[in-house]
Amino acid sequence: MRILFFSHYFPPEVNAPANRTYEHCRRWSAAGHRVTVVTCAPNCPDGVLYPGYRNRLFQSETVDGIRVVRVWTYLAANKGLVRRVLNYLSYMVAAVLASPFLGPHDVVVATTPQFFCGWAGALAGWLVRKPLVLEVRDLWPDSIAAVGAIRSRRVLRALEWLEQRLYRAARQVVTVGPGYRRELLAKGVPAERISVITNGVPLERFAPQAPVRALAAELGLAGKFVCSYIGTVGMAHGLEVVLDAAERLRHRTDLAFLVVGDGARREALERERERRGLANVVFTGRQPRERMPSFISITDAALIHLRRTPLFATVLPSKLFEAMAGGCPVLLGVEGDAADVVRSAGAGLAFPPEDPDALAQALAHLCDHPDEARRMGANGRACVRQNFDRRVLADQYLDLLVALGQTHPRAARAA
Q1: Which tens digits make up the pLDDT trace of 111-164?
Q2: Cis bond leading into 113, ω under 30°?
């Protein structure tokens, strides 16, 4: 197979779409398929180029067997509306213009978020006359409306029209959980055109390991029971709950919160922490993907949290599976499908989103019952091994792409 994959994000960026795309594509490449990823020069979340990269019109490199083509984009931080839209649109235009010059392909894949990356795949698929697989990791414009990023009904209606057109352009829609499948069915996408390939985790990278004590000491967390949030610190994640819970736990000098990652809300949260004098909350900012297992190793409980809105009850966060694979008991502030996974596996404690009292009580309970916490961690690891192994999921995805490429008439003639 010759696979052309559009992703706005790719390593060394460390967010969920970058990681999912990389893990799938490297496994497809290792299986002997030719994979080309069209992405940006790495700059997320600050809009600042990573060291060693330039924002050129077109540049190409090979990463673990994957041909990675980086196109010019208008660089913007992951906050503010107008500049981010310009960033998204510039990627769409540059990626589409590059697509006819990247060689023949059998299938086009495009992943969201963001919304206009999906449109890059749709337009490129039309240009190169190949079928589109649209990967829906986030429902736009529903998710941006849910967090209040756009409030204009006129703009939201225009985006909803574009969303419907995008679904019609796709030969197959791949989504990451049963909740999203239900939402897509409600939006009129035919059931036979929807496949579920859940988020998962490369088990070999997130195997439980001994705590990296030097890291705990560096962060001032030695000897403490650490509750870690590892991931994007964005509008959707509602991490104000961490500060509120930390305030309620000031008297517990044996407990601390660790926030690993960056995003639109990190600076504001750090300022609020300083204002309140919360010494039991530590922020690290953005960290390399390779260090994530080390942070998990010093984590005694993993916090997964999203704001309380009906849409987020459909989400299965990728960070949930990384925490479970690392043997960490989970403190889950997400309703719906994710809570079902944690409860059925016995992998942690679920609490109502945006409820700092419930979070504080759940964290204190795990700290005071270490045997129960260890048992939950082991249960989570077993659940991931059985149901969310990235190798198995990547193979399922590849089977779908091969079947689509073989049944598409132009692909058959090219072969």
Answers
A1: 987 789 999 999 999 999 999 999 998 777 666 655 566 667 777 787 778 888
A2: yes
Place of tokens 């929807």: 194
Whether residue 315 lies inside any domain: the answer is yes
Whether 405 and 381 share a structural domain: no
Between 124 and 412, the more confident residue is 124
Position 153 in a domain: yes
The answer on 223 and 87 residing in a single domain is no
Average pLDDT over residues 331-343: 94
Tokens of 386: 């059985």
pLDDT tens, 365-406?
A: 999 999 999 999 999 999 999 999 999 999 999 999 999 877
d(CA 409, CA 386): 37
pTM over 0.90: no
CA angle, residues 241, 112, 12, in degrees to nearest 5: 75
Q: List strand residue ranges (DSSP E) for 233-273, in order.
A: 255-260
Residue corresponding to tokens 């390939």: 197
Using the structure block, give the residue that is written with the tokens 């990269």: 53
314 part of a folded domain? yes
Say what the pLDDT of residue 41 is: 96
Range of the domain at 228: 213-387
How far is 409 from 35, CA to CA, in rounded Å? 21
Q: How many residues does the chain have?
A: 415
Do the beta carbons of residue 40 and residue 71 sit within 8 Å? Answer: yes
How far, in Å, CA of 369 to CA of 162, rounded?
51
Q: 3: number of CA atoms within 13 Å, CB side?
A: 32
Torsions phi, psi for 256 (to 5 deg): -155, 155
**Residue among 270, 267, 290, 291 nearest 281 (CA):** 270
117 and 111 Cβ atoms separated by less than 8 Å: yes
What's the pLDDT score for residue 147?
58
Question: For position 176, which CATH number holds?
Answer: 3.40.50.2000
pLDDT average, residue stretch 13-37: 94
3-state SS, residue 381 = helix
Q: Is 189 left (phi over 0), alpha (psi -120 to 50) or beta?
A: beta
